[in-house]
Design a protein that fits this description.
Distance between the termini: 39 Å
Helix content: 10-25%
Number of domains: 1
Number of strands: 26
Largest sheet: 14 strands, mixed
Strand content: 35-45%
Number of helices: 12
Length: about 475
């Protein structure tokens, strides 16, 4: 199998924008109804408690208003979306058993070649369901659990019942979480036992294929006391003329002295509304690392959040968003300091090009009992071409006088002097601008595992093509 990322590394936009023929074995009628929720639960043979949770989330969803802040969502018609699409495939543990058309799609994206080279386990989701999931045998022997979220409901019911959409992201959190709670399907469940440190990353890749579809995968990661794990998530979808929606949910529990590093590259097509929710609860001396790249989607609302509820807990967030013509990327990060001696850093970078809108929207909240908190926020924006827009909406709520909280924001354009200097060294103007952009995003690139650093770098180069003129 050809690894397009690490061997020849020939990646172009058509890899992601091209769709397979729709061969799904079941596609729900458009619109979110009670019958759709019942059908999803029936197809998955779920226990009564999960169906009850779904139906309660559906009630919340029907009563909630659409958000009126952030990107304009007026063209998102939720009644035209199909909320459950089953591919004509079962979940397999051998890649050779995955249907050929689906396998070819993931092969083009470098999966599962990456698994062989540098990963401890891989999951692949196509539309509403997982089609592949596997973990290295030595990790399984240590008690590491890495399974499809649907499988976890049946095989680890007590753990799922305790952690799934209860305290981290409750089903009534906001409109799109309510939607997610009603129709979630697929995703990943990870449990790392006490003291186990997973040396190689675990990975999942989520691919939407069907027109006017939605994807609502659920990722639940539990790192027990002293455990460590890196998790990588990639996402993409073909380009259509009709709208699609992605409203996934990530819940991460970082217990005492544990560490979770979460990497994500979300590369949805421009007809996709990416309305994702990610949150971590961090206990005493635990650490959560967020590294995010957001591009492709027409409208994005995504703010990875950390609740530092144990003394000495720490959160680091680093993200890049790219907004080209017709795109509105509303991204950022949130940190709630609920315990003493907690620390957080947020570094947000954005690139706006020729009519694109990139907004940082963030929250730092220091609770009354969070003594000696330290928090730092840095926002850097780069503008390219006419009509590019950068916005910053920071919010800080500090209720303890011992806290040290800082915020810094910078906006700039690619300078003529920089470009002229590089051109004087023999580069054409487009290549000179790309080098400046590469330097701007370097902190994010350095934080990503190699394969994904290469992918993110090339994706931004693709978005930059034709930036001059």
């Amino acid at each position: 199998m050809k690894n397009t990322l690490s061997k020849n590394y020939t990646i172009d936009r058509s890899m992601f924008d091209a769709a397979n023929k729709d061969t799904s074995r079941y596609k729900a009628a458009p619109g979110l109804t009670r019958d759709v929720v019942l059908q999803i639960s029936k197809e998955k043979n779920e226990p009564a408690w999960m169906l009850e949770k779904r139906l309660k989330a559906y009630e919340y969803f029907m009563a909630a208003e659409m958000p009126t802040w952030g990107p304009d969502l007026s063209e998102l018609d939720l009644d035209t979306i199909s909320y459950f699409i089953q591919p004509d495939a079962r979940e397999e543990r051998s890649w050779d058993d995955v249907p050929e058309d689906i396998k070819q799609t993931f092969d083009k994206l470098g999966i599962p070649e990456a698994e062989k080279a540098a990963l401890a386990g891989v999951g692949a989701q196509y539309d509403s369901e997982m089609v592949y999931h596997n973990i290295k045998e030595d990790l399984a022997k240590q008690g590491v659990v890495f399974v499809n979220m649907d499988t976890a409901v049946h095989e680890y019911p007590e753990m799922v019942k305790k952690y799934f959409m209860t305290q981290c992201v409750p089903i009534n959190d906001h409109k799109f979480v309510m939607m997610h709670g009603a129709v979630w399907s697929g995703g990943t469940f990870i449990y790392i036992p006490k003291g186990v440190k997973v040396a190689l990353p675990l990975q999942a890749y989520f691919r939407m294929n069907t027109e006017s579809g939605g994807q609502f995968e659920h990722t639940l990661i539990i790192a027990d006391e002293g455990a460590e794990v890196q998790y990588i998530e990639g996402c993409s979808a073909p380009r259509y003329t009709t709208n699609s929606i992605h409203a996934g949910c990530v819940e991460i529990f970082v217990h005492k002295h544990a560490r979770v590093s979460y990497f994500s590259i979300e590369n949805w097509s421009k007809n996709t509304y990416n309305l994702n929710t990610k949150r971590a609860l961090v206990d005493e001396c635990g650490v959560i690392d967020w590294v995010n790249g957001n591009m492709g989607s027409g409208k994005t609302m995504l703010y990875p959040s950390s609740v530092l509820r144990g003394r000495g807990a720490k959160s680091d967030s680093l993200g890049i968003a790219f907004a080209g013509d017709g795109q509105d990327q509303d991204t950022g990060a949130k940190v709630i300091h609920a315990a003493p001696e907690t620390t957080s850093t947020i570094r947000a970078k954005s690139i706006s090009r020729s009519g694109g809108i990139a907004s940082y929207r963030g929250l730092v909240q220091v609770k009354k009992k969070a003594e000696h908190t330290v928090s730092s926020v840095e926002c850097d924006a780069l503008l390219i071409g006419d009509g590019a827009v950068s916005q910053t909406f920071p919010y800080m709520d500090v209720a303890n006088s011992t806290a040290q909280v800082a915020h810094e924001a910078r906006v700039g354009r690619i300078g003529d002097e920089e470009v002229f200097y590089l051109m004087s060294r023999g580069l054409n103007k487009e290549r000179a601008m790309q080098l400046v952009v590469n330097g701007f995003i370097e902190p994010v690139i350095k934080a990503l595992p190699l394969e994904y650093a290469l992918e993110l770098n090339r994706l931004i180069e693709i978005e930059m093509e034709g930036a001059i003129g």
